Amino acid sequence: MQRLLYPLAVSVLAVAVQAQDTPEKLAADAGCGACHHAEEPRMGPSWQAIAERYKDQEGAAAELQEKMRTVSKGAWGEAPMPPVTPDQLTDDQLSSVIDWILNR
Ligand code: HEC
């Protein structure tokens, strides 16, 4: 029985993962692109610059996630970044977007 169930569980999981939006789409839908571009600075730093700044910092993803829920200010310049609300992105979605930014 277990032999049968395991592949079944794996394929159900695979379908569930595919059905989720990609982090790129989540970020686009949440409006991050209004202030962030992949390579060029806009009102906010580019995803590239963020990835470079934090690439060797342990715990950066968790730290950024916490910051995104409040106001981020002074890390890059004078312009503050408004908080990302759970309506825009759930914790899991925000976490996948941050991983996507940091691992480019
Ligand atoms: C209204 C403009 C605006 C929007 C919309 C916006 N950002 Fe930002 N973001 C900024 C600014 C400005 C900064 C720099 C803040 C600072 O200097 O601390 C920033 C910084 C960041 C940082 C780096 C923070 C740090 O402390 O180094 C991350 C990560 C980030 N944004 C992710 C996102 C994500 C994900 C979204 C979409 C859910 C988003 N931003 C939407 C303006 C924006």
Net shape: elongated
CATH class: Mainly Alpha
* H and E string: HHHHH
Biggest sheet record: none
What ligand molecules are bound, each kind once? heme C
Radius of gyration, in angstroms, nearest whole number: 17 Å
Distance between the termini: 42 Å
Low-confidence runs:
none
Quickly count the domains: 1
Write the CATH homologous superfamily: Cytochrome c-like domain
What fold name stands as the CATH topology? Cytochrome Bc1 Complex, Chain D, domain 2
CATH architecture: Orthogonal Bundle
Strand content: under 5%
Question: What's the helix count?
Answer: 5
The assigned structural class equals mainly alpha
Overall pLDDT level: 90
GO molecular function, one term: electron transfer activity
InterPro entries: Cyt_c-like_dom, Cyt_c-like_dom_sf, Cyt_c_ID
Protein name: Cytochrome c-551
Keywords: Electron transport, Heme, Iron, Metal-binding, Signal, Transport
List the helices and strands and how they pair.
Layout: H1 2-19, H2 23-29, H3 47-54, H4 60-69, H5 91-102
Helix pairs in contact: 2-5, 4-5
Bound molecules: heme C.
Structure report:
- The chain has 104 residues and is mainly α.
- It has one domain: Cytochrome Bc1 Complex, Chain D, domain 2 (Orthogonal Bundle), CATH 1.10.760.
- Helix content is 53%, strand content 0%.
- It contains five helices and no strands.
- The chain has helices spanning 2-19, 23-29, 47-54, 60-69, 91-102.
- Helix 2 crosses helix 5 and helix 4 crosses helix 5.
- The longest helix has 18 residues, at 2-19.
- The structure holds heme C (HEC).
- Residues 27, 30-32, 34-36, 43-45, 50, 64, 67-68, 72-77, 79-82, 84, 88-89, 97, 101 line the site of heme C.
- Heme C is lined by residues 27, 30-32, 34-36, 43-45, 50, 64, 67-68, 72-77, 79-82, 84, 88-89, 97, 101.
- Residues 1-19 form the signal peptide.
- Keywords: Electron transport, Heme, Iron, Metal-binding, Signal, Transport.
